[in-house]
Amino acid sequence: MNGAESVVIYVMHWSMADFLLFSGVNTIIKVSFEMKRSLTANVAK
User: Keywords assigned by UniProt (predicted)?
Assistant: First the structure.
């Protein structure tokens, strides 16, 4: 394996990790937002 190949693999690995982390954070934000919205809707009744 030469230098360029290892760099490509390294970048792919980290972009995948970043993507998973970002989508995980995104999902948590969406879920907490939905929960907050349903809570305020229940309180408003």
Answer: Membrane, Transmembrane, Transmembrane helix
DSSP string for 1-45: --HHHHHHHHHHHHHHHHHHHHHHHHHHHHHHHHHHHHHHHHHH-
- Measure the CA–CA gap between 36 and 43, rounded to whole angstroms: 11
Domain regions of the chain by residue span: 1-39
What's the predicted TM-score (pTM) here? 0.51
